[in-house]
Design brief:
By secondary structure, the chain is of the alpha/beta class. Helix content is 51%, strand content 14%. It has 2 domains: 3-62 and 124-192, no CATH class; 66-122.
Length: 212
């Protein structure tokens, strides 16, 4: 199991601490403010939709980005069933056998729960809302220029590339404009815009997460 810890390189504050299941490419706003030292930080895990590769965009639009997650749920479900059946067949009535059966049942039920929870989130349009919020942010040319500058100064190989189907997508999902998710995203973005009213060339106000 892989654990991810990210820290503000200015003060060392842990913005993530031994989290599991952190995707290498996470859709979201990569700029944030360290809650401890108020230093502007660049999260190299999070990426705006129009800063993603064409391949990754297609994966998000088609929901295949969740394929590996669903595959792992199926694996743990089948593994749980295997443990239950194996423990039941060779059970000798000991506490160890009962414990193995309970572990197998737990693994199977937990896998079903995680699968169903994520599937329902997808059906509710959470991914489309995240893409919509991201496209709204990258409609701000000043923000895009500042983000490009941050990536260049920090040696991150990412750059803006306009999404060809942007206008159609925005029209199709305009209903999400008033969703709680998009409202919260807009508020956070407004805060970042106020914060980056400083000179982007001021390197002392920029940093990136260090990974361990």
């Amino acid at each position: 199991m892989e654990y991810t810890t990210t820290r503000c390189s200015n003060c060392g504050f842990a913005t993530r601490y031994r989290e599991t299941g952190v995707p290498k490419v996470q859709l979201g706003m990569p700029l944030a403010v360290c809650p401890r030292c108020r230093h502007l930080i660049l999260d190299s895990f999070k990426t705006e939709f129009e800063f993603m590769s064409e391949k990754k965009r297609k994966a998000f639009l088609s929901h295949t980005v969740f394929a590996s997650f669903f595959a792992s749920c199926v694996f743990f479900f089948l593994f749980g069933i295997f443990v239950v059946v194996g423990a039941a067949l060779f059970s000798d009535g000991t506490a160890e056998s009962v414990f193995l059966i309970l572990i197998g049942v737990f693994l199977s039920l937990f896998s079903v729960y995680k699968f169903a929870k994520t599937f329902l989130k997808i059906k509710s349009g959470v991914l489309e809302q995240a893409i919509y919020a991201s496209l709204k942010r990258t409609s701000d040319s000043g923000y895009v220029d500042f983000l490009n500058s941050c990536y260049q100064k920090n040696g991150v190989n990412k750059e803006f590339s306009a999404f060809g189907g942007k206008s159609e997508f925005m029209k199709k999902y305009k209903v999400y404009e008033t969703s709680d998710f998009c409202k919260k995203s807009a508020e956070e973005f407004a805060g970042i815009l106020l914060f980056i009213g400083i000179d982007p060339a001021d390197k002392d106000r920029m940093s990136r997460f260090s990974h361990h």
